[in-house]
Amino acid sequence: MFIERRIICTSCPVGCFMIVTEENGKIVSISGSSCPRGEEYAKVELTDPRRVFASTIRVEGGVLSVCPVRSKEPVPKDKIFDITKAVARVKIKAPIEIGQIIIKNVCDTSVDIVASRSLPAKQSADTVAQGG
Amino acid sequence: MSDITVDVAVIGAGPAGIAAGVGAKKAGAERVVIFERDWDLGGILQQCIHPGFGLHIFGEELTGPEYMHRWISKAREVGVEFLMNSMVFHMEDDGSFWIMNPSLGIKKVTPKSVVLAMGCRERPLGALGIPGTRPAGIYTAGTAQRLVNMEGYMPGNKVVILGSGDVGLIMARRMIWEGAEVLGVYEIMPWPGGLRRNIAQCLDDYGIPFHLEETVVEIHGKDRLEGVTVAKVDMNRKPIVGTERLVGCDTLLLAVGLIPENELSRMAGVAINPVTQGPYVNELLQTSKPKIFAAGNVVIVYDLVDWVSKEGERAGKNAALFAAGELKEPARKIKILGGSNVRLYSPQWLSGQADATIYMRVAQPIEKRCKVIVEPGAYEKQLRYARPGEMSEVQIKAEYVQSLGDVAEILVDIREA
Fold it and tell me: What is the dihedral of CA B11, B16, B18, B23, to 10 degrees?
């Protein structure tokens, strides 16, 4: 039995509209993508859909009260809400360095949550203000 | 009180301004200073914590803060100087301007050339004229984004989004991830305002209803927002009587367009294009005042920060050449006209001194093979589609402009192939 699925590629801003045909759970054709990344995306999307997760964690003593974080790699789509909860429980002391690991192997995905910016501690905010 | 003298002054430390600083230093300018009103560098990208930036420039998708981190490092490396907490509050028509800074006080800056990189602002509620009350709970999408991503506050729990610009779509997903309920996105036009992949990954992934040709016609609630009335619209974007529905919500986010921020440009007497609402520029990104250059969303609202950075570098480079006296007064001034399906475009002038990139948006979507044409001449570029929410661009060689002879105008259009 053939099943046709319509998906939009999210690999880049073009957003190719693809039609994937499956027969007995196996992909037999992928049409509509304008680059090889599209086909790769379609395959992953049907077997193990993943997304990059980005949120914030609470910060103590920082120039901002929250710091942005991201999953270093895409995580399984169905784990996203578990990850939101894991990230919401975290509070960390400033200063924070970009790339710093915040949660290792979040929700057993083998993917780390890392800081996506550097955040100085509050007292050094004056240095920043001077253009330092 | 001594003036601050610089070779190239850049106003705004967002993506356009930082790239302009880098471009100016690389082109040999000695003292390049970026003036920024915030305490932090990076502009609006610091609150855009989702990935999706930098694919063209860095070959990978970074979050906004990561993208800016790379540019800020590059700027420091090449010796760009920054002056933070410095609000430029007045600009003269010779390009000199006044800043206010908590430790320096009020200072005059006299640069040899200037790059305007102030970015844009969101269209607010007041510009929409929606009937009803004015309770708390109504935010532009970018304000909500700042509250959630930088200040750690949730604006509300039951959210309706008006308009489908990218910031609104991104915020729909962001609010869901933070535990809110997003009841729907309402777009008055027959097509989405933002990128199609954002419809897929921000709305479709979470089953958020997307209503095209529908809008908010009334706001309800005394102290806090209690709901909005939505209705379908006809071909003239007028609400259709009898289609109204009440949607209970405590938060309304507006993602209804961005407007270039040009108060300073106007003060300096820079000519503003009423369509883009940004300065008229040539391919060097020089405004009607030869000493003043402009780049990024202050000129025309882009979809991708990569293009903003590229244009910033271009403006910075040319501002450096101007400061060094190496940029000749343009010998030619050819006007670019937009065809019937080009709603807005930039630049509007060509001098023939450098290769040009013309960025444009279509008025009507073409969902099949189409082409950008430049007349007169053999310029044609094939496109797979053209959508109002996604900019198209075409490269034009300086030699083409030089070869035009007596031609004073060229036409750029996007048509079916």
Answer: -100
